[in-house]
Prior knowledge:
This protein is mainly β.
Amino acid sequence: MADTFTTKLGIRKWDSLSNYDVSQMNSNSDLIDSAIGWVICTSTGRPSSPWEGLPIVETDTGNRYVYHSSNWWLISGNFTASGKPSLNIFTGAQVFETDTAHNVRWTGSGWAPCGMTRLGSAPYVNGGAGTVTSELQLASFTTACVSGRKYRGMISGVLTIVTGSSGSFIGRYASGGSVTTSSTEFMQLQFQGNGGSEDKARIVEFASPGTGTFTFGLFVRRESGSGNVTVSNNANQPDILTVDDVGI
């Protein structure tokens, strides 16, 4: 009978009639030693004859995979928001989105944030807006969005409105680097004038506007009447719009 070899590392198994060769024994030891730990490679230089359960780390991408069912399955890695894989991913695998700086995880059917992620905030602390007879932009921020995500918007602020008039804070978004009074409105926080200052907050959930760069803006407008609508200028409690990615 002839010597045989193991399927993964090719370690020699001597036939009972074979002569023992110390150099071949040493070769077996070297094969075992070289297989311990993760295989360090590049994305274009993965092992050509992998076995089930072989783990690798790609030095050019930082991605980690395990060979399973004749494919490389992702454990963790770095991708753009639109460049993440959708096949051969272990449930719970985590990815860092290099263009959004968000950490996301694979749920088994899609990608979701690892907890709530703040997309941005637009605080206004620059003084009163005085008499507002048309809509006025207060602050804005620009961020990367991903289609299919669920977002949570919050507006918190103080308005002083004379009795008989009313006003609102408005949240709007637009594709690109700017937002205007004609951009898409996704939330509103209404105030009814009582002659004094009133502090309110509102939270809404809405679908992501799409994939790409979007700008979110905080606006104020007088809704009815003819009196002054004045915005707070308290730096310790700014009027503010925030948007979070909740990933649902």
